[in-house]
Amino acid sequence: MGIEMVEVGGLRKYTHVLLFQAFDLKMRMTAYWNIVLRRLIDIMGLRLQLSVSNLVNKGLEMEIMNELPGPNHIGGIERMLLEPPSMGSEAPEAHQEHQKAQGV
């Protein structure tokens, strides 16, 4: 939808007013087209962000519900919040400080 060369021979059969209106419409559409494209891109980005957020939230909710064992629902969340063994050896000082703060 860019500005291109126009054959003027075919335009002679139209009135001056109609040609001016067509030119005015073309210029307005050209000016607003970039704004429309930017809004479409923004909307698609926001929709993608919302979809990923919903997927993560629902996936995390399902994971938590699957981790809750038995009728009492005890222990599953605590296990999920524990550090994995690979992360536990990376910061022993922080772990000791945390235990001191809790009075363990």
Features:
single chain; 104 residues; mainly alpha; 4 helices
The share of residues in helices is over 70%
Percentage of β-strand residues:
under 5%
- Number-wise, the strands total 0
Inertia-based shape: rod-shaped
Class inferred from helices and paired strands: mainly alpha
- Quaternary structure of the protein: single chain
Provide the low-confidence segments as ranges. none
N-C termini distance:
70 Å
Order of helices and strands: HHHH
Average residue pLDDT: 79
Give the structure's gist in a few sentences.
With 104 residues, the chain is mostly helical. It is 70% helix and 0% strand. The chain has a domain at 11-80.
Can you walk through the features of this model?
This is GED domain-containing protein. The chain contains 4 helices and no strands. It has 104 residues and is an all-alpha fold. It has a domain of 70 residues.
